[in-house]
C-alpha cells in the first residue's frame, strides 16, 4: 500500500476477492475466473473513463 502513496502517476489498488474464501480462491485459480475478473475490470475502467470529460 505504501507504494501507492509514492506513485508518480495516478494509481489504484484493486482487490478482486478473498483468497481465504474457497469460492473466491477457486475462481482466482482458474484461467476462466481470471479472465472474468479481467473483463470486469476493463468494463469498470472503461465505464469510468466514459463518464469523464475530454482528456487533459
UniProtKB/TrEMBL annotation:
It comes from the Bacteria. Residues 3-46 form the MurNAc-LAA domain. InterPro entries: MurNAc-LAA_cat. One of its GO terms (biological process) is peptidoglycan catabolic process. It holds the Pfam family Amidase_3. One of its GO terms (molecular function) is N-acetylmuramoyl-L-alanine amidase activity. This is N-acetylmuramoyl-L-alanine amidase. It comes from Mycobacterium tuberculosis. The lineage of its organism: Bacteria, Bacillati, Actinomycetota, Actinomycetes, Mycobacteriales.
